[in-house]
Specification:
heterodimer, A: 752 residues, mainly alpha, two-stranded antiparallel ribbon, 35 helices, 3 strands, B: 345 residues, alpha+beta, 2 domains, 10 helices, 14 strands
């Protein structure tokens, strides 16, 4: 989760982005480095959401730490409360590492009743890891037998169930002999066998007591499967020590001791896998604990980063002919911090399965500075296959887990944000799955992935992306429409960012792409903007011009109007009349203000383009057709006529504009129709005008708007600017040349 | 049905190759797409037939008519020892598609066998489920099948066999084959050329044996060669194609009936309809449908199936075209939509 915070989901502006990316401390992985940090890391995700929860857990822990005498559960509401806290947190989100010491101590010390101890033990699920020290101290409690036999058994079962989550096992190995002595206990024997089975390692000399065990084994009546399993392991490691012949064909299993923790443990595993790819156990093969799920190869598991140990000698020799071949390679499992990455970057090995980089930001950093195509190909193959296989609406058998798929898409999206680049496997997946999509399942994830479709990759983007998107757009709710517009805005921004970076690197390397390529890119961007213009026009009609929708549409154009200056892309496309006029005549000052800002940016961009055209005569031949200027001039005439000179009905020359005959206007029976859309009378502005009148003439209750003129007009303007209409301000200051205050009706130099 | 309708994935143009500095990533030309293609299955089945008996087609048209199926003359006939291909027959094979193997080399097959064998031993001892004593001793053989490929450019097929040696009995006892799987390349000429360096394209994986071994072997390949496995389903369209194709083959008179299994969708309980046809009748029908001997086109397959459907409708008043074809079984071979095939001859 720490990682999640560091991932950038915003890419605008780029500068901020870089800042995030070099926030090195964020990449330090918690866990092994230092215990304080560890605790901090594990708490931090909770802090935001569950401050109160965290507080109550702290209270509960300090209570259990101090509890002295045997307290009755029924009578003591304080105990009840704290016990419930521990249970709910333990089962829902897992307990932080520091809780285990306290809770294990109290559960095994026998201070409280067995019912309490049982409930405590059953809720002991880790949020991430269990510190080894707390396990060791609880084993010492076991040795002094303060607690009942049932609790001892439950503790052993717990230990087996959570074995994988203990952070270190060295000291635990040192206790091998202690556990071995428990074999004598008839009830504990099966669980102790299992535990020993997990603890036994080939290299340690743990077989000294084998004879004793054999004795025990022989003296035992009947074949105990658990002992037999342990013995077979011993025999495998040290065949010379185990003299007993084990029965040939017999499968033996340990009793399933995961019992009450099973569901919780699966959750922890999944969570750990998400958060900490380096420590995550590899779940593949038959020993897969999440057996609820289908076939071996179709679990949606991002592989752990592990070095490819199967590299053959010959391969290694071959690979090391390069410059850095002197030193040993650095294994990915060891990679924990950014500084380690920097120190070992010249001899770091990539993981055996490239998919694992998705959850490992350090490797993503590494990937970003490596120019090996095969890395991307490996990722491409794996991701393409996984997306296809796991897609809940494409796959043939419908037993896929939607939540899991959602998480996966989320991870892919975050990786794309991190690399600032879309994956082509993802793009292909979208083209294939969008026509089959219901528009609902994993919606936000899919739309986010759409925003990372790479620029210039695919010439038939229209039929594969725009057509299905248009279908969803027209048939869905207002909210979904806005989501699609938002995602298309992101797409445009990502394309433009890509273009800027691409231009930079081109000028660096002195490689100039051909003009045709460039114009193809321009065409693709233009196509996107035209598409958005088209769906926006239709949507505004369908939905009857809601402000909410207009906001998202104009938000898109805020990016589109600045492409030349901000992204160095010689392309400007004006919004269609179907967007411009509804925005101009909107009832809402926010919309009008936004439109003013956009028109101001269009003007700035067009003026700059014209200047460049006149001075440099280069790179301007691309898109700045006269038509763009013409469209801009038509709009600006309409806008100035509307807001300022009250002449829109005469002067608007746009074919879809507001030009109307005087005869017709007279029939509307509106008096003073001429100025009905200027900054005083405009429906979006009238509210300001009223407030202004109230302040300027507090005694006048007639609302005589015609008072706002001359000097008052300027005051009114200042009043509007002071109320946050900055767009209007820059628009008026740039596009309206106020020759003198008296002749404000004269708007000069509005045309570029 | 969906397979036919799915759009072709992006074929990436070489546009960005120039500026390798910029945000780059030119993916390999639609390899994944081809691997998904169930055409591969049809081809493999043809390869089967070719090895065993030689199908009577000179050439056949693929599902998309511009993409001809493989010419059916065996590529390396001299090598196609029936003994060595016999293991492929009369077994049920489960199909997987595999992404290209990274850094796989035919020169190291022995080493791979050794490593895989060690991996299997380790896997078998891991975890809660313990199998004592037996079956730890699994022998792994990885070999190349150079005669099994679709075209000269194709990579030779790779066979993986697991056999057990019972520790109870002495070494000289017969090893028992417990699992086998083979990777093969059936993609035709144009694909193999486009495989990028360091990658080996063996997009089809066929498995016979217990799932637990498939899992272990698959995991090992995944980890070692960074590839990924996916069950390959066979669409009803392809199944009908196979039905027509196999009907046309000459078989002995005693041959078993051709059987088509349909499943009825949207029912609370699953309902399957089995439609058995005498092979000679089916052959007679097909002969009237097929215009050019040695060539099949989609239209003919459609007509053939429509005839069968209308015959069924006449007798049972059931429109089979509204159901889903799930299995085709003929004297030559059978195929199930779940991606399971079996070749009898």
């Amino acid at each position: 989760m720490q990682r999640r915070q560091s991932f950038k989901t915003q890419k605008q502006p780029l500068q901020v982005h870089h800042k995030n990316q070099t926030d090195l401390s964020a990449w330090r992985k918690g866990g092994r480095i230092d215990p304080e940090k560890n605790v901090q890391n594990h708490q931090s995700p909770n802090n935001q959401k569950n401050d109160s929860k965290q507080g109550s857990l702290e209270q509960a822990l300090s209570y259990f730490e101090k509890v002295q005498d045997r307290v009755s559960l029924k009578k003591n509401s304080v105990l009840q409360k704290h016990l419930t806290t521990v249970e709910s947190i333990g089962l829902q989100s897992g307990l932080p590492p520091e809780a285990f010491d306290v809770l294990l101590n109290v559960a095994l010390s026998g201070k409280l009743a067995d019912t309490v101890n049982t409930r405590l033990l059953k809720s002991l699920l880790p949020a991430s890891v269990i510190p080894e020290t707390s396990v060791v101290s609880s084993v010492s409690w076991l040795c002094v037998s303060k607690c009942s036999g049932n609790i001892q058994l439950l503790f052993l079962r717990w230990l087996i169930a959570v074995f994988d989550f203990i952070d270190h096992k060295e000291q635990l190995h040192a206790l091998y002999g202690f556990f071995f002595s428990f074999l004598q206990d008839e009830k504990m024997c099966p669980y102790v066998c299992h535990l020993l089975y997990l603890l036994t390692r080939k290299e340690t000399g743990e077989y000294i007591q084998l004879y004793e065990m054999e004795y025990h084994f022989i003296s035992y009546s009947g074949m105990q499967s658990h002992l037999q399993a342990l013995l077979s392991l011993y025999k495998l490691y040290c065949p010379e020590l185990v003299t007993i012949t084990l029965p040939g064909k017999m499968k033996t299993y340990f009793k399933n001791s995961e019992g009450p923790w099973k569901a919780g443990i699966n959750t922890v595993r999944r969570r750990n896998q998400e958060n900490s790819p380096v420590f995550q156990p590899l779940f593949l093969g038959t020993a897969q604990p999440q057996s609820r799920k289908r076939k071996w190869n179709t679990q949606l598991i991002i592989p752990a980063s592990s070095t490819n140990t199967n590299n053959l000698e010959e391969d290694k020799k071959k690979n090391r002919v390069d410059l850095y071949s002197m030193s040993e390679s650095f294994r990915v499992e060891q990679l924990q911090t950014f500084s380690q990455l920097l120190q070992n970057i010249h001899h770091l090995e990539f993981p055996s399965q490239m998919g694992s980089v998705l959850t490992n930001p350090l490797l993503l950093h590494y990937m970003n500075c490596i120019k090996d195509e095969s890395i991307y190909l490996r990722l491409y193959y794996w991701m393409g296959q996984t997306l296809q296989e796991e897609c809940t609406w494409c796959a043939l058998d419908n037993n896929q887990d939607e939540e899991e798929f959602k998480d996966f898409l989320e991870t892919v999206y975050k990786t794309e944000c991190f690399l600032q680049e879309g994956f082509s496997s993802c793009e292909e997946f979208l083209y294939k799955s969008l026509p089959l999509w219901d528009g609902f399942c994993c919606r936000s994830q899919i739309l986010r992935l759409v925003s990372w479709i790479p620029l210039g990759s695919f010439s038939e983007i229209k039929s594969h992306l725009y057509d299905p998107l248009a279908q969803f757009f027209f048939t869905s709710s207002l909210y979904f429409k806005c989501s699609i517009l938002e995602c298309l805005k992101e797409l445009l921004q990502n394309w433009l960012n890509w273009h800027v970076i691409h231009l930079d690197s081109e000028s660096d390397s002195q490689v100039h792409s051909s003009n045709t390529t460039h114009s193809e890119l321009l065409n693709e961007v233009a196509e996107l903007i035209h598409f958005v213009g088209w769906i926006s026009t239709v949507a505004l009609r369908l939905e009857n011009n809601p402000t909410f929708l207009l906001y998202f549409i104009l938000d898109f154009y805020e990016t589109a109007c600045d492409m030349y200056l901000r992204y160095n892309l010689p392309l400007l496309i004006m919004p269609p009349a179907g967007v411009f006029y509804p925005a101009l005549l909107s009832m809402d000052s926010v919309t009008l203000n936004q439109l003013c800002y956009i028109m101001y940016r269009y003007r700035t961009n067009l003026v700059a383009a014209k200047e460049n055209e006149l001075s440099k005569k280069e790179m301007v031949q691309f898109r700045f057709s006269n038509q763009t200027y013409q469209e801009y001039n038509q709009y600006i005439t309409a806008m100035v006529g509307c807001l300022w000179t009250s002449s829109v009905f005469q002067k608007d020359i746009h074919p879809q504009g507001l030009r109307m005959d005087d005869e017709l206007l007279k029939k509307t029976a509106v008096q003073e129709f001429k100025n009905s859309f200027n900054i005083v009378y405009h429906p979006a502005m009238m509210g300001y005008a009223v407030l202004f009148l109230q302040q300027a003439w507090p005694d006048d209750t007639t609302f005589n708007f015609s008072l706002i003129k001359g000097k008052k007009w300027n005051w009114y303007l200042e009043y509007l600017y002071a109320h946050g209409l900055k767009g209007l301000k820059v628009f008026i200051e740039s596009s309206i040349n106020r020759v003198s205050q008296a002749s404000h009706s004269k708007a000069g130099n509005v045309q570029v | 049905m969906a397979a036919g309708a799915a759009p072709r994935p992006a074929r990436r143009g070489g546009r960005r190759e120039g500026g390798s500095n910029g945000p780059r990533r030119e993916a390999a030309p639609g390899l994944v797409s081809v691997m998904e293609s169930v055409e591969a299955v049809a081809r493999t089945l043809l390869s089967f037939g070719r090895l065993s008996r030689g199908l009577p087609f000179g050439r056949a048209h693929g599902l998309s008519s511009r993409d001809p199926l493989l010419p059916l003359a065996p590529r390396s006939q001299e090598n196609a020892d029936p003994q060595r291909t016999a293991f492929l027959l009369r077994k049920q094979w489960t199909l997987y598609s595999v992404t290209p193997l990274y850094r796989f080399s035919n020169a190291h097959l022995r080493d791979y066998a050794r490593l895989l064998s060690a991996f299997i031993a380790a896997e078998k001892q891991k975890g809660l489920a313990v199998e004592v004593g037996v079956e730890l001793d699994i022998k792994v053989a990885v070999s190349s099948l150079p005669y099994l490929k679709g075209s000269d450019q194709d990579q030779a097929a790779i066979l993986v066999q697991l056999s057990s040696r019972s520790p109870a009995s002495p070494k000289n006892s017969e090893e028992k084959l417990i699992w086998s799987g083979w990777f093969c390349c059936v993609s035709g000429d144009n694909l193999s050329k486009n495989v990028p360096e360091d990658f080996t394209c063996l997009p089809l994986f066929l498995v016979n044996g217990a799932e637990c071994y498939t899992s272990i072997v698959g995991s090992w390949f995944q980890k070692t060669f960074d590839c990924s496995f996916r069950r390959l389903a066979i669409s009803p369209l392809i199944l009908s194609w196979m039905a027509a194709m196999w009907t046309g083959c000459k078989v002995d008179k005693t041959a078993s009936a051709m059987e088509l299994v349909f499943s009825v969708p949207c029912l609370p309980q699953p309902l399957d309809i089995s439609y058995a046809i005498h092979p000679e009748d089916a052959k007679a029908l097909w002969d009237t449908v097929q215009k050019t001997p040695g060539e099949i086109i989609q239209e003919e397959v459609d007509v053939f199936m429509d005839c069968l459907y209308s015959h069924f409708h006449r007798h049972f008043r059931i429109h089979l075209s509204a159901t889903k074809l799930v299995k085709v079984s003929t004297a030559i071979a059978s195929a199930h939509c779940d991606g399971i095939i079996k070749v009898r001859f």
